[in-house]
Protein backbone atom coordinates (compact mmCIF):
# COMPACT_ATOMS: atom_id res chain seq x y z
CA UNK A 1 0.00 0.00 0.00
CA UNK A 2 1.39 3.38 -1.03
CA UNK A 3 1.08 6.27 1.38
CA UNK A 4 0.18 9.69 0.01
CA UNK A 5 2.65 11.96 1.84
CA UNK A 6 0.54 15.11 1.39
CA UNK A 7 -2.55 13.37 2.81
CA UNK A 8 -0.45 12.00 5.67
CA UNK A 9 0.84 15.49 6.47
CA UNK A 10 -2.69 16.90 6.32
CA UNK A 11 -3.84 14.31 8.87
CA UNK A 12 -0.85 15.01 11.10
CA UNK A 13 -1.45 18.75 10.72
CA UNK A 14 -5.03 18.34 11.92
CA UNK A 15 -3.81 16.64 15.10
CA UNK A 16 -1.23 19.37 15.77
CA UNK A 17 -3.79 22.05 14.93
CA UNK A 18 -6.30 20.61 17.37
CA UNK A 19 -3.95 19.52 20.15
CA UNK A 20 -0.89 21.73 19.71
CA UNK A 21 2.63 20.37 19.84
CA UNK A 22 2.53 19.30 23.49
CA UNK A 23 -0.82 17.55 23.25
CA UNK A 24 -0.16 15.71 19.99
CA UNK A 25 1.13 12.33 21.12
CA UNK A 26 2.37 9.62 18.80
CA UNK A 27 -0.74 7.65 19.75
CA UNK A 28 -2.94 10.55 18.53
CA UNK A 29 -0.87 10.92 15.38
CA UNK A 30 -0.98 7.18 14.66
CA UNK A 31 -4.74 7.05 15.26
CA UNK A 32 -5.36 10.01 12.93
CA UNK A 33 -3.26 8.53 10.14
CA UNK A 34 -4.28 4.91 10.59
CA UNK A 35 -0.62 3.96 10.82
CA UNK A 36 1.32 2.33 13.60
CA UNK A 37 3.80 4.36 15.63
CA UNK A 38 6.59 2.30 14.02
CA UNK A 39 5.34 3.20 10.53
CA UNK A 40 5.17 6.86 11.50
CA UNK A 41 8.79 6.67 12.68
CA UNK A 42 9.68 4.99 9.39
CA UNK A 43 8.30 8.00 7.50
CA UNK A 44 9.46 10.55 10.09
CA UNK A 45 12.61 9.22 11.83
CA UNK A 46 12.83 12.48 13.80
CA UNK A 47 9.41 11.84 15.35
CA UNK A 48 7.12 14.69 16.36
CA UNK A 49 9.88 17.25 15.96
CA UNK A 50 10.41 16.31 12.33
CA UNK A 51 6.66 16.30 11.66
CA UNK A 52 6.33 19.76 13.19
CA UNK A 53 9.30 21.06 11.18
CA UNK A 54 7.80 19.80 7.93
CA UNK A 55 4.43 21.33 8.79
CA UNK A 56 6.03 24.69 9.61
CA UNK A 57 8.06 24.71 6.38
CA UNK A 58 4.96 23.75 4.39
CA UNK A 59 2.81 26.41 6.07
CA UNK A 60 5.40 29.13 5.48
CA UNK A 61 5.75 28.08 1.86
CA UNK A 62 1.99 27.95 1.27
CA UNK A 63 1.31 31.28 2.97
CA UNK A 64 4.15 32.88 1.05
CA UNK A 65 2.92 31.47 -2.25
CA UNK A 66 -0.78 32.12 -1.73
CA UNK A 67 -0.58 35.54 -0.09
CA UNK A 68 2.67 37.41 0.48
CA UNK A 69 4.40 36.79 -2.85
CA UNK A 70 1.87 39.05 -4.57
CA UNK A 71 3.62 42.09 -3.09
CA UNK A 72 6.73 41.07 -5.03
CA UNK A 73 5.02 40.21 -8.31
CA UNK A 74 2.08 42.62 -8.69
CA UNK A 75 1.57 46.37 -8.51
CA UNK A 76 0.53 47.39 -4.99
CA UNK A 77 -3.11 48.07 -5.91
CA UNK A 78 -3.43 44.53 -7.29
CA UNK A 79 -1.28 42.93 -4.60
CA UNK A 80 -3.59 43.79 -1.70
CA UNK A 81 -6.67 41.95 -3.00
CA UNK A 82 -4.51 39.03 -4.15
CA UNK A 83 -2.87 38.89 -0.70
CA UNK A 84 -6.21 38.91 1.11
CA UNK A 85 -7.74 36.32 -1.20
CA UNK A 86 -4.64 34.16 -0.79
CA UNK A 87 -4.82 34.41 2.99
CA UNK A 88 -8.52 33.52 2.80
CA UNK A 89 -7.63 30.46 0.74
CA UNK A 90 -4.83 29.48 3.15
CA UNK A 91 -7.24 29.35 6.12
CA UNK A 92 -10.05 27.90 4.00
CA UNK A 93 -12.29 30.90 4.41
CA UNK A 94 -11.87 30.95 8.18
CA UNK A 95 -12.61 27.25 8.68
CA UNK A 96 -9.00 26.14 9.18
CA UNK A 97 -6.30 27.10 11.65
CA UNK A 98 -2.90 28.48 10.80
CA UNK A 99 -0.46 25.92 12.21
CA UNK A 100 2.11 28.68 12.68
CA UNK A 101 -0.28 30.53 14.98
CA UNK A 102 -1.16 27.30 16.79
CA UNK A 103 2.47 26.59 17.63
CA UNK A 104 3.17 30.16 18.71
CA UNK A 105 -0.07 30.53 20.67
CA UNK A 106 0.60 27.36 22.59
CA UNK A 107 4.04 28.70 23.57
CA UNK A 108 5.32 25.18 24.04
CA UNK A 109 7.91 24.47 26.68
CA UNK A 110 9.64 21.90 24.49
CA UNK A 111 13.22 22.81 23.74
CA UNK A 112 13.13 20.52 20.70
CA UNK A 113 11.08 23.02 18.69
CA UNK A 114 12.69 26.23 19.97
CA UNK A 115 14.36 26.63 16.57
CA UNK A 116 10.98 26.27 14.85
CA UNK A 117 9.53 28.95 17.08
CA UNK A 118 12.37 31.29 16.14
CA UNK A 119 11.83 30.47 12.47
CA UNK A 120 8.14 31.36 12.79
CA UNK A 121 8.96 34.63 14.60
CA UNK A 122 11.51 35.59 11.93
CA UNK A 123 9.08 34.76 9.14
CA UNK A 124 6.33 36.90 10.65
CA UNK A 125 8.80 39.76 11.09
CA UNK A 126 9.69 39.44 7.40
CA UNK A 127 6.03 39.35 6.39
CA UNK A 128 5.34 42.36 8.58
CA UNK A 129 8.09 44.17 6.68
CA UNK A 130 6.51 43.21 3.36
CA UNK A 131 3.17 44.65 4.45
CA UNK A 132 4.79 47.78 5.88
CA UNK A 133 6.68 48.32 2.61
CA UNK A 134 3.44 47.94 0.65
CA UNK A 135 1.72 50.46 2.89
CA UNK A 136 4.67 52.85 2.57
CA UNK A 137 4.47 52.49 -1.22
CA UNK A 138 0.89 53.78 -0.93
CA UNK A 139 2.11 56.86 0.91
CA UNK A 140 2.14 55.93 4.60
CA UNK A 141 5.09 57.23 6.61
CA UNK A 142 7.39 54.43 7.86
CA UNK A 143 6.19 54.42 11.48
CA UNK A 144 2.53 54.50 10.42
CA UNK A 145 3.16 51.80 7.78
CA UNK A 146 4.63 49.48 10.44
CA UNK A 147 1.71 50.16 12.77
CA UNK A 148 -0.84 49.56 10.01
CA UNK A 149 0.92 46.35 8.98
CA UNK A 150 0.49 45.08 12.55
CA UNK A 151 -3.16 46.11 12.36
CA UNK A 152 -3.73 44.12 9.17
CA UNK A 153 -2.22 40.97 10.67
CA UNK A 154 -4.09 41.52 13.95
CA UNK A 155 -7.36 41.84 12.11
CA UNK A 156 -6.75 38.72 10.02
CA UNK A 157 -5.70 36.51 12.90
CA UNK A 158 -8.22 38.07 15.28
CA UNK A 159 -11.04 37.47 12.80
CA UNK A 160 -9.88 33.89 12.42
CA UNK A 161 -10.08 33.42 16.19
CA UNK A 162 -13.49 35.12 16.45
CA UNK A 163 -14.84 32.96 13.62
CA UNK A 164 -13.67 29.90 15.56
CA UNK A 165 -15.13 31.13 18.85
CA UNK A 166 -18.51 31.73 17.24
CA UNK A 167 -18.29 28.72 14.91
CA UNK A 168 -19.13 31.08 12.06
CA UNK A 169 -16.64 31.36 9.19
CA UNK A 170 -18.73 34.20 7.75
CA UNK A 171 -17.29 36.47 10.45
CA UNK A 172 -13.83 35.90 9.01
CA UNK A 173 -15.12 36.53 5.51
CA UNK A 174 -16.65 39.86 6.59
CA UNK A 175 -13.25 40.99 7.84
CA UNK A 176 -11.68 40.08 4.50
CA UNK A 177 -14.40 42.06 2.72
CA UNK A 178 -13.79 45.12 4.92
CA UNK A 179 -10.03 44.87 4.43
CA UNK A 180 -10.53 44.59 0.67
CA UNK A 181 -12.52 47.83 0.72
CA UNK A 182 -9.96 49.58 2.93
CA UNK A 183 -6.98 48.54 0.83
CA UNK A 184 -8.50 49.28 -2.56
CA UNK A 185 -7.28 52.43 -4.31
CA UNK A 186 -9.33 55.49 -3.48
What's the structural blueprint in terms of helices and strands?
Blueprint: H1 5-23, H2 26-33, H3 37-43, H4 47-68, H5 70-73, H6 76-90, H7 99-106, H8 114-137, H9 142-166, H10 169-183
Describe this structure in words.
It is a single chain. With 186 residues, the protein is mainly α. It has ten helices and no strands. It is elongated and about 55 Å long. The termini are far apart. The model has no long low-confidence stretch (mean pLDDT 92).
Any key phrases for this structure?
186 residues, mainly alpha, 10 helices, 79% helix, 0% strand
Radius of gyration: 18 Å
By DSSP (H or I, 4+ residues per run), the number of helices equals 10
**Beta-strand residue percentage:** under 5%
Helix amount: over 70%
Name the poorly predicted regions. none
Q: From the structure provided, what is the oligomeric state, counting identical versus distinct chains?
A: single chain
How do the SSEs run, as a string of H and E? Answer: HHHHHHHHHH
Distance between the termini: 56 Å
Structural class: mainly alpha
Number of extended strands: 0
The main pleated sheet reads as: none
Q: Determine the mean pLDDT.
A: 92
- Assign an overall shape: elongated
Amino acid sequence: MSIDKSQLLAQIGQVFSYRGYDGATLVHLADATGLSKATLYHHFPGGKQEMAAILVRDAISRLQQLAFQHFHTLPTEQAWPAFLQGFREYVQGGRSNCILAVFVHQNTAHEDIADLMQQIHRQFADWHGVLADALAARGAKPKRARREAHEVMSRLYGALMIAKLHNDAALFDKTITRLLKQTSPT
